[in-house]
Amino acid sequence: MDNNKLLIITYYWPPAGGPGVQRWLKFVKYLPDFGYQPIVYIPENPSYPIIDVNLLSEVSNEAIILRNKIVEPYQWASFLSKNKTTKISSGIIPNKKKQTFLDKMLLWIRGNIFIPDARVLWVKPSVKYIEKYISENGITTIITSGPPHSLHLIGLELKLKQKLNVRWVADFRDPWTTIGYHKALKLSEFASNKHKQLENKVLNTADLILVTSPSTRAEFKQITSQPIEVITNGYDIEKIGDQIVDKKFSLAHIGSFLSERNPRILWDSISELIRENPLFASHFQLKLIGAVSQEVLDSIALFQLQNYVLNLGYVSHDVAIAHQKKSQVLLLIEINSEDTKSIIPGKLFEYMVSERPIIGVGPKGCDFAEILIDTNTGVFADYSEKEKLKNYIANYFSLFLEGNLKSNAVGLQKYSRRNLTEKLVGLLKR
Q1: What pTM was computed for the model?
Q2: Of residues 43, 46, 32, 25, the one with CA closest to residue 4
Q3: Residue 430, C-beta contacts closer than 8 angstroms, at least 6 positions apart
Q4: I need a surface site. Which of 100, 270, 332, 352 has the fewest CB within 10 A?
């Protein structure tokens, strides 16, 4: 058997766009540098909510790609409403007060019929396919990446097949039952308990559990005594060169702007600065890059900021990187919830190497605030600190007028994708 072969089971893979694809795309890129042969198992006919064909060029030539057909309920649901199913699939859930009957029905089906998620129908055919491949190719280590957490059920079934004798690493890019949108799925008591049972079984069966934040590690340690290690997301060396910085005082949010991730204290702070300072009003621009929920747009309009908005929608990863480098200030917003303290958005690390300052807004005590401060890449305010947030924006605007607005980052190297892959390899060799 070749112990250097790694079978990686993931749903998101190019041409999928969005943050979910980046983690294992980059691990696979660097694993051969450390003597490992990555074998990536993906769906043959996936229903990706976001497409970025440019990412196809980043797939390692040394990776072996295995594809197997998947039954996608979201494709069935798209006959009812393609727009609604695409949004639910990408995590954009309508505000509870504004949900239509169709919204409620689709959410109920998603939460109660397909447990743990809509990709659960891929589990059985995948186990059959992978079991045969493992036996024929001497695979000793498999890695599952979730969400979708149904992929961990593939790992679970393969691990329980004693004749295979595989080591199973379960990688959690996000938590399971405490992830932000989980409560919005209208779960019955049965469905809620089923999620917890599956989570418990996965966490207590996997040989090694990987998480992206210290808080998720602490949460999972309440459930299992299996080894849990933190490997955050990170940044890579991008081919996008230096950019000319915007002439406007641009605050840019890059990525999905979900309904619950709606920082009214930010809109309020900006609105006050516009009323109080005509110079600020003449220079200010709010850039929204990525899918934005209607609730966020409505809030922006409520604070009379709509005329300052440049809404570019979803763009390719390369274009997003370019905007990170040329925007004056980058916005990192997380939902104000106890459940989201553990979320360290993947874009944080790309933000940090853009050389532009970051304004973070999130729940008090969240993990990403500590990284911002430790690396000197930005400032942070929780949802109770409106005056602090307003002062941060005003101070950055003053530096902008002086021509001195920039980031002076420290200690970023440990977050490079290559160094994170080296950490992964070290864990695999234990």
Answers
A1: 0.85
A2: 32
A3: none
A4: 100
